[in-house]
UniProtKB/TrEMBL annotation:
Keywords: Carbohydrate metabolism, Cellulose degradation, Glycosidase, Hydrolase, Polysaccharide degradation, Signal. GO terms for molecular function: cellulase activity; polysaccharide binding. Its EC number is 3.2.1.4. It holds the Pfam family CBM_4_9. It catalyses: Endohydrolysis of (1->4)-beta-D-glucosidic linkages in cellulose, lichenin and cereal beta-D-glucans. This is Endoglucanase. PROSITE patterns: CBM2 (PS51173), GH9_3 (PS00698). Transmembrane segments: none annotated. Residues 1-28 form the signal peptide. It comes from the Bacteria.
């Protein structure tokens, strides 16, 4: 959660004009044009400061420290962009001001971009005594919907340094209330702007008040009609504010590019029918993380010249560096930490453990899930364009390690983890990472951050065990130490007021983090201490999983996912977890069927929130896992519906993924991808995900432009609209997980990878059976231990067994190796058996070590 920094503009920004008044102030409407003119919130947003000026809110005023020695008044500026003016209308510009040393100050209105035309200005003498100033003018320019209008204070042209403070800044007038408009053009035929996958459903939304079906046509790139049909009226969709119809063109399945769907005179953006884009997105979404690396140069050979930059925060001036960072002055922790590396969390230069935790877990889980249920070769060494691509380690693990190592560095000597590290004050927009001159500070340790570290380090230890045993052991030691420290400090919560220079990320409930961390430690170690903590938790067996989904502050379902994938619990409990995923997935599908724009999102309590797109994708992960656990195609189709929404089948006709679709997000809130503010800087790279609609309108730009918006339309592609157009690692990790899963499913039916084969042969009589079981290791690695699981389909009960430790709960049967037959080399088999009572057919599905096996 970031704050909006200033915009830097050219010195020739405004011409000084004589103030005019063609209409009296009394005749002007009471429409306030300026946002945050009282500074009562303590924030300077959206006021910017020019070169040589540092500004901040102090005592309810915006105070600008101005470096002396400039020539012209406009050589030192503070101002606000996006101010709406209407040509021919009267406005009154009022403000309070004082200065440490008396000097002239010019208040001006005009244009924020070239040719920087002025509307009006007036010079006042500001003294140490606070005074009220005001003048009235008529606008000669027209910026009715904000656009390029601006107000500014010109503070330069003085020989010495000075501080000027302003308050109660107001521009009142005009005849049209500002805001209420999203400037992106929208279509009436809404499609996925990128692609539909062959063999899967293809649906679109028509915006129409017609109550009868409408004829639609699908044309190819040559303009020839290839399909047609009738829409299904759905009526008013409250979340978008649109009256809609459903168009289903699934019957057409010919791969190609440049298709257009039309109804009457209205046509969609062009799109493809192809699996290629989602397979490309799998890697573009992961490339985001290399771009966000701190403490290392981002090299052109991996990202291209446009996105290359020097290393940030490595003690090269003007950086103050991350190698020796102290705690905040009020904490006095008595030590410093070397916290170089990691990923910048979002568009600022902060690094947050609770965001890094879920983001890293999601990447690692994508790899683990593919290893267990899919094909992890998609993430093999050389699959990503990163410096480590030829080191023999799967590239997804390499990228994740960049953050895992940072998380380890955030561990304090007592085992607790610091919540975050970032600048002492918010930096300007734009500010390249290597040019950030702010001092860096550690925030206090917290229970939530410590449990994030414990969970991810335990998970990573499990995945690195066969890659780097020494590193795996280091990770597990850190995880144990963190978990022990958290149990000794179970309620050390992050300060909700620690929001200067970086988001606070406060979280007053940590039982979910305890459950998550214990689940990861159990999956990695199998130890009874962690099993006790898991099974005693109120979150056990997916009790917290619901349509609201999971996020950085609600992590219990992450533990459920791990427990469902990695052996460690009774089979019946694993079945219960998997069933809860299917139950919640069904709830999503039921809700989606009634929506104008099918989206796995529950807006019933909080509307659309900051980062809503990440919630959509996290819920898509729930749908994906429901498909993994049950094989039901309806859940697979729900995942692709979520991607269609993200990529343009939404009421704004916009793909929220940069570089994907004809109208895609461009102006992400980011201090380096800041082309909107500085044409020499790049736009957001392909595969970057916008936060998405936020009906809370939690930044001034969104408040100005989007007041009164329906929930799904509360978004604008503006770099200053940080509450709707921010990027973040834990949002792109959701996109990476889902697009990776979708890419796997886009090549037809995927048979889960099997490293085992089980043969079950039974001899029966009227009320019993005797069975021999052959378990074969068909994988490439030896087993050091094994555990067989299956379900009796009838009334059979286990009575005795041999060559294994046998048990039965309900219909679920398990058999674990003995000390002498645990090791099974590739291609080798182990033979066990059982006697039982009751009647029924043979079991048809078997698992070994949690993996589904082929049946011999």
């Amino acid at each position: 959660m970031r704050s909006q920094p200033p915009r830097l503009l050219a010195a020739t920004l405004l011409a000084v004009l004589t103030a005019t008044s063609l209409q009296s102030a009394a005749a002007a409407a009471d429409y306030e044009r300026v946002l945050n003119g009282t500074f009562d919130s303590g924030s300077a947003d959206p006021w910017w400061a020019g070169a040589g000026v540092t500004h901040r809110v102090t005592g309810g005023e915006l105070c600008a420290a101005v470096t002396g020695g400039t020539t012209n008044p406009w050589d030192a500026l503070i101002g606000q962009n996006g101010v709406p003016f209407e040509e021919g209308q009267s406005y009154t510009f009022s403000f309070d001001a004082r200065a440490t040393t008396a000097q002239p100050v010019t208040a001006a209105a005009g244009e924020s971009v070239s040719p920087y035309r002025g509307i009006a200005s007036k010079q006042f003498t500001v003294s140490p005594e606070k005074q009220r100033f005001s003048f009235t003018f008529t606008s000669t320019l027209d910026f009715p919907d904000a656009g390029n209008g601006q107000v500014a204070f010109q503070l330069g042209g003085q020989p010495s340094d000075n501080t000027i403070c302003v308050d109660n800044v107001s521009v009142i007038g005009g005849v049209k209330p500002p805001g209420g408009v999203n400037p992106n053009p929208t279509k009436k035929v809404q499609v996925d702007l990128v692609a539909y996958v062959p063999g899967l459903p293809k649906r679109a939304t028509l915006v129409s008040t017609a109550t009868t079906p409408q004829t639609w046509t699908l044309k190819n790139s040559a303009g020839a009609t290839v399909a047609s049909g009738q829409s299904t009226p759905k009526g008013l969709d409250a979340t978008s504010g649109d009256s809609v119809h459903l168009i289903d063109f699934s019957s057409f399945d010919t791969a190609g590019t440049g298709y257009v769907l039309s109804v009457g005179e209205d046509s969609s953006f062009p799109f493809d029918i192809s699996a290629d884009p989602v397979k490309r997105l799998r890697y573009d979404s992961l490339a985001f993380f290399y771009h966000q690396r701190s403490g290392t140069p981002i090299e052109a050979q991996y990202v291209g010249e446009e996105y290359a930059r020097p290393a940030g925060h490595v003690n090269v001036a003007p950086n103050q560096g991350d190698n020796n960072v102290p705690c905040r002055a009020d904490l006095a922790c008595g030590y410093t930490l070397d916290v170089r590396g990691g990923w910048y969390d979002a568009g600022d230069h902060g690094k947050y453990v609770v965001n890094g935790g879920i983001a890293t877990w999601q990447l690692l889980n994508a790899y683990e899930r593919a290893s267990v249920l899919g094909d992890a070769t998609a993430y093999r060494d050389g699959s990503l364009n990163i410096p480590e691509k030829s080191n023999g380690v799967p590239d997804l693990l390499d990228e994740a390690r960049w953050e895992v190592d940072f998380l380890l560095k955030m561990q304090a000597p007592d085992g607790m983890a610091h919540h975050k590290i970032h600048d002492a004050n918010w930096t300007a927009l734009p500010t390249r990472p290597e040019l950030d001159d702010q001092p860096r500070r550690l925030s206090a340790t917290s229970t939530a951050a410590t449990l994030n570290l414990a969970a991810v380090a335990a998970q990573a230890s499990r995945l690195w065990k066969g890659v780097d045993a020494t590193y795996s052991a280091t990770l597990l030691a850190a995880a144990r130490k963190a978990y022990t420290a958290a149990k000794a400090n179970p309620a050390k919560l992050a300060d909700p007021n620690d929001g200067t220079g970086g988001g606070a990320y406060s979280d007053d409930t940590v039982t979910d983090e305890f459950y998550w961390a214990a689940s990861e430690l159990l999956a990695t170690t199998g130890e009874s201490t962690y099993r006790t903590d898991v099974t005693a938790s109120p979150h056990y067996k997916a009790a917290s999983l619901n349509r609201g989904g999971f996020h950085w502050g609600g992590t219990a379902p992450l533990g459920d996912i791990t427990l469902a994938l990695v052996p460690g619990l009774p089979a019946a409990d694993v079945t219960a977890i998997k069933q809860k995923f299917a139950t919640v997935a069904d709830e999503h599908l039921t809700a989606m069927a009634a929506m104008g724009y099918a989206t796995p999102y529950d807006n019933s309590t909080a509307g659309y929130v900051w980062g809503s797109n990440s919630t959509v994708l996290n819920n898509a992960q729930v749908l994906a896992l429901a498909h993994d656990f049950t094989g039901a195609t309806k859940y697979r189709d729900g995942v692709f519906e979520a991607l269609h929404y993200i990529q343009g089948r939404n009421p704004l006709s916009t793909s929220y993924v940069a570089g994907y679709g004809d109208q895609a997000m461009v102006n992400a809130h980011h201090r380096f991808w800041a082309h909107q503010n500085d044409p020499t800087l790049p736009i957001a790279p392909a595969g970057s995900l916008s936060g998405g609609p936020n009906s809370g309108l939690q930044d001034p730009v969104a408040q100005r432009l989007l007041t009164g918006c329906p929930q799904q339309k509360c978004w604008v592609d503006d770099i200053g609209a940080y509450s709707v157009n921010e990027v973040a690692i834990n949002w792109n990790s959701a996109l990476a997980w889902v697009s990776g899963w979708a890419a796997e499913k886009s090549g037809g039916t995927t048979t889960p990878k099997s490293d085992c084969e089980v043969g079950f042969t039974a001899h029966r009589w009227s009320d019993g059976l005797s069975a021999s079981v052959k378990i074969t290791n068909t994988g490439s690695s030896a087993w050091s231990s094994w555990k067989l699981g299956f379900t009796f389909p009838g009334t059979q009960r286990l009575t005795t067994g041999w060559s294994a430790t046998w048990s039965q709960t309900g219909q679920e049967v398990s058999a674990a190796n003995l000390s002498w037959n645990g090791k099974v080399d590739p291609g080798k088999s182990v033979y066990i058996g059982l006697n039982g009572s009751g009647a029924g057919t043979d079991p048809t599905s078997f698992t070994v070590n949690g993996k589904t096996c082929k049946t011999a």
